[in-house]
Amino acid sequence: MIKKQLKFLILLSLISFQGVSSSENNIYNKIDLFGEVLEKINKEYVDEINQSESMDSAINGLLQSLDPYSAYMSPEIFNEMQTETSGEFGGLGIEVSMESGVVKVISPIDDTPASRAGIKAGDYIVKINDIQVQGKSLSEAVDLMRGPVGSGIELTIRRRGEKKALTFNIVREVIQIKSVKADLLEKNIGYIRLTSFNENSGKQIKKEINKFEENKNVKAYILDLRNNPGGLLSQAIKISDFFLNDGEIVSTKSRKSSENRKWFAKKGDLTNGKTIVVLINYGSASASEIVAGALKDHKRAILLGENSYGKGSVQSIIPLKNDGAIRLTVAKYYLPSGKSISEVGVSPDIEVDEETDDFRIKTETDNQLNYAIKLLNG
Which of the listed residues 99, 199, 258, 271 has the most CB atoms within 10 Å of its CB? Predict the structure, then answer.
């Protein structure tokens, strides 16, 4: 039955062609093979299977074979995702992707259970409670991490440089994301921490810069983009423009050359040319890398910290007829220098690694921030 349905679908897709080319015939054969495999599983597998779930897994496997960021969302997961974009949701407070069949932490979000527990960018989640992550889709793994607010969860982590697996017991909370925090350091340095790029990030940063500019003692800025997993491209462009007078900020290249785009800065540096240090680390991804890369390429800022994540691609959420959706990579980001961010990230001008295992952003253990302050006070 499954094979017949698949054959019928492929015949419909090819009906508009006069003939079937060798490549199209090969696709037909592969789909025929896929149907045969499903049929064998349904008849011979030791346990009874849910065919609908098997098809969902197959679709997700196809998408995740493209890159770590493309994925299938069932109607239930798509609906939950739309709910979560309101900025308040239950969970641990981590941005994740899938790599080699394991969930990889892009970055923990500030002031969330995950960041307080000590989860770090680049950590691999291998077990959720007693369930192995290997073989699960990203959506399935995220579902396992969800749960009632106040309930506990145990994550088993593999970390670079650590021989043994690490175990973290975390209590789920309602996650409220505050994207901009500002402070006056040493009475003369404007410190702005950006934790994500949401709809109001640009307005909030502009407001903080204007406050600092009213203070005649402020002589320099620190823009902290560490553990910032990204967000809206429009906000990355707007925030980059705050510190530039002209020049290209970023470009995107897609499959269709007609859809390639470039964005440029308008005249008007809100900081009036003051020295800027941008802090980045492995948890700085996507929109964070656009801002850091643009300011570096224009020699407008000194980048300090660690190499960024390397997520230089654009994903679109494309709704499907079943009320689900696919997240699909449709373009790649390129810096003003012409370099792609994908997989290589943005490198700092001054490399400063986290000094201790007790490292926490903007605390006494934050040696990267302390280095930046000393650098600016020369």
Answer: 271
